Amino acid sequence: MPDSATVAKLRAAWPNVPIISFTSSLEALSVSCDQSSKPSEPKDEKTYRDSLSAQDTGKCRNCGKIAPLLCNGCKGLPAARGNSTIAARYCTKECQKQDWTVHKNDCKAAKTRQLLYRVADLTKGLFYIHSEITFSWAYLKKIDCYGPLRAVYTDEVKSERRNTLLVPFSTVTDLVSDRKEQEAYLSHLGCSGAVARFGPLLAARLRGNLQLIEEIIVTPKNHNLSIVKGQKEVDNRPVFRKDGLYHTILRVTLASQEQYAVDLTGAQYGHAEECLPWEDYVTARVDQIIEVQPVGTSKKWLAEQIDPVRLMQWSMKLNFLNEMEICIGFWEVHGGSIDALLALPEKQWLAKKESLLEYVKTFMKHLKEDSIRQGSWCRE
């Protein structure tokens, strides 16, 4: 969390950007992530009585009897494979205590798993905000839908002049009202940039629970949605150009040796889940693994682009990412640490996460407007 001197410098740097206080709405952010993530011997409050239905015949992990109790430490947390959740059942509190030496590692692994899913969810939300602020599809003219296919047309005359411009405004929200569709366009052909800019943020939030993070280039399959560039129309029939044969994702190996795929831009293929167990992801979405790269490879590649327009875009987007991190620092000053946010109970986590994202979005919009007024954006 930034100290008062850092906050004063940040306020001096951006005097025209209003700082929204979330202090009153974030009083619940008093949970310590370190304390909540350490398993301890279960006490009475670590179990709760579950209402049993006629079909509920869960068995005790310790003795095999019908079990009306669930471990409250990992209840409802994601399982290592599939879409199921953890449900460690016990017939009595005594059985739970006897099994604790066996179960505690699974309980800790489930909490780490939940942390990864939440960090990936929050990182994807920040990615969409950044993409919307820096959206760079110049002169988007129309979007046609053909089932799961989306044909995107731009103004070719104006686009030819794009090499001298950075266009500061997005028109995707004007042409598309559905939020899932907007996310598809905001993430289209943005996988390398997402990995380069937001991979380090994800890794930083997983510190202490992360063994390895890698960049994986794949050819995707099983698209629920496909976005193509509509080059022209002949006899009222579209002619398409398909882009993006390769897709870059992150492979995260936790300290428990469990591996997960984090796909921040899967929406461009119609996939909503940003984090899946690695084997599940490969089975469902990967046709072929092309290359495994050290984390940071995409960032280095983007920074070495010789095209001046790409260099300007990369620099501009990186600057806005830096300001986004400053914004998150402001939020932490008023509302508590991100670590505390990630450790909240589910309902509080969802509410406070949305508060954070709304705060960042408002801040970044003001920042963009301030940058345009100062002439920081090239305009036509």
From TrEMBL:
It holds the Pfam family zf-MYND. GO terms for molecular function: zinc ion binding. The keyword Zinc applies. The keyword DNA-binding does not apply. Coiled coil: none annotated. Residues 60-107 form the MYND-type domain. Keywords: Metal-binding, Zinc, Zinc-finger. This is MYND-type domain-containing protein. It comes from Heterodermia speciosa.
